[in-house]
Design brief:
The complex is a heterodimer of chains A (214) and B (231). By secondary structure, chain A is an alpha+beta fold. Chain A is built from three helices and five strands; from the N terminus they run H-E-E-E-E-E-H-H. Chain A has helices at residues 2-52, 180-204, 208-213; strands at residues 66-69, 81-88, 91-104, 107-116, 121-128. Chain B is mainly alpha-helical and 231 residues long. Chain B has eleven helices and two strands; from the N terminus they run H-H-H-H-H-H-H-H-E-H-E-H-H. Chain B has a two-stranded antiparallel sheet. The model of chain B is unreliable at 225-231 (pLDDT under 50). Classes of the chains: A alpha+beta (214), B mainly alpha (231).
């Protein structure tokens, strides 16, 4: 009995020993790379944001001027996201929000939208999707300029019935053979504009810290 | 490790026991990531690095690890190495990291890594084990490169697309448009294309083996006879 206990203990301590070494290696790699990872993620996001918000629209540090947005059925986000606010001479000029189209052909399509202060879309981009390659993936700017069709559109310009593909009587182009994908994207963009209209003032509201600085 | 051992290990890894077309281990990443050359080769190299490192780490400690818990210890070491590679890629090759996504952490579950550690590194010295892991990874990379090339040419009409993700903006113009104004062929990009492509590769490898065999039979007195007995 004692022998069994001893060998069990020995085996267990052996495993613990390796686990400790492994954890130490991982922890040190994490600390060495963490800063760089955060940096590259931020750079990637900034690249995306500057694509859809023209640099002439803002003079503030857009990556710092953020507001966390709670989950909202209009945006389809299932966790808090960040809104980035663009301001020119202290006046709000545009806001960048993230939205999710839940009804893509193969699941969720993650979008990022820039809405100008007057409710006009400055740009839309697809951040992540699982649509069929070569068929539904024309929503990516890399594959097709289709997504640029949203530039300059607003809810003032198009009524609800217009926010559909042309096949369904709307105003937006689509490609034969893949209509579910654009339908999902258009619907999500329309709903995001509704969200913007309903929450415009909160979206542009200064953070408490900014209020103080003023 | 003498020169013959070296040759034996390398030829086993790259050709005779090729993980992609002979052992057929690690099919999941092979089929999923081989849609372009760059994706395939990147994951292949990442796997080769993990395999070489795990061979080099496990061989020297093989005598200290009790037999009963060797598998958990091996998995633990492999998982640590993969996560280290993942952190490094995330930090220094962000674009590629995003493209390869879930398949980098999934290297842990790639049977071939554990299989080589168990079959080779746990019985051989450090240098040979590292070489074995690397040669096996190289064989996998080769298959991924060929399969990725076939699928990319047929599917997109290009070669090396996305190379800028791996090597930075400088490489942006390296993309070769093999067939100009190509409309694309969906089947090759989707998973069925991967299965068909891999099937063709296996058939090709078997055909080459068969031809070598016949050649050897046709000339029975050649001295190369002894080398291929184990094949």
């Amino acid at each position: 009995m004692r022998r069994i206990a001893r060998s069990t203990l020995q085996t267990a301590s052996n495993l613990v020993f390796f686990a400790i070494i492994g954890t130490a290696v991982l922890a040190s790699t994490y600390f060495l790379t963490h800063e760089k990872i955060v940096e590259s993620e931020k750079a990637e996001k900034l690249k995306l944001i500057t694509q859809i918000v023209p640099t002439t629209l803002y003079d503030n540090d857009i990556m710092q001027d953020t507001l966390s947005i709670a989950t909202d059925p209009l945006l389809g986000n299932d966790a808090e996201t960040l809104a980035y606010r663009a301001r020119l001479n202290g006046e709000p000029s545009a806001v960048v929000i993230e939205a999710i189209a839940p009804d893509g052909y193969s699941g969720k399509i993650a979008l990022i939208l820039a809405v100008k202060a007057n409710g006009e879309l400055a740009g839309v981009r697809v951040v992540a999707h699982k649509e069929t390659p070569g068929l539904g993936d024309y929503i990516e700017l890399l594959k097709n300029p289709w997504i640029k069709g949203f530039d300059g559109k607003s809810r003032e310009m198009y009524k609800d019935a217009d926010w559909k593909v042309k096949k369904d009587g709307g105003q937006f182009d689509y490609m034969a053979g893949a209509t579910i994908t654009p339908r999902a994207v258009i619907k999500a963009v329309n709903k995001s504009l509704l969200y913007f209209a309903a929450n415009r003032d909160q979206l542009f509201a200064m953070n408490p810290s900014q209020e103080k600085a003023k | 490790m003498n020169i013959n051992e070296f040759k034996e290990i390398v030829s086993n890894g790259v050709w005779k026991q090729n993980t992609g077309v002979v052992q057929l281990l690690g099919l999941c990443p092979i089929l999923a990531v081989s849609s372009t050359v760059v994706n395939g080769v990147s994951l292949g190299i990442a796997t080769a690095i993990v395999m070489a490192l795990s061979g080099a780490t496990i061989a020297p400690i093989r005598t200290f690890v009790p037999n009963e818990i060797r598998i958990p210890v091996f998995i633990l070491i492999i998982a640590v190495l993969v996560t280290v590679v993942q952190y490094l890629m995330n930090a220094y090759m962000y674009g590629l990291y995003v493209v390869l996504g879930i398949f980098i952490p999934l290297i842990v579950t790639n049977c071939i890594v554990l299989a080589r550690v168990e079959a080779f590194a746990s019985k051989n010295p450090m240098g040979a084990s590292a070489l074995d892991g690397f040669a096996m990874g190289l064989g996998l990379t080769l298959v991924l490169a060929i399969l990725g090339g076939i699928r990319e040419i047929i599917g997109h009409g290009t070669l090396l697309s996305g190379i800028d993700l791996a090597l930075g903006e400088v490489a942006k113009d390296w993309v070769i448009h093999v067939i100009p104004n190509y409309k694309g062929f969906l089947l090759a990009i989707l998973p069925p294309g991967a299965f068909i492509g891999l099937g063709c590769l296996i058939a090709g490898k078997n055909w080459l083996n068969l031809r070598a065999e016949q050649k050897r039979k046709a000339a029975p007195a050649t001295p190369t006879q002894q080398d291929t007995v184990t094949a």
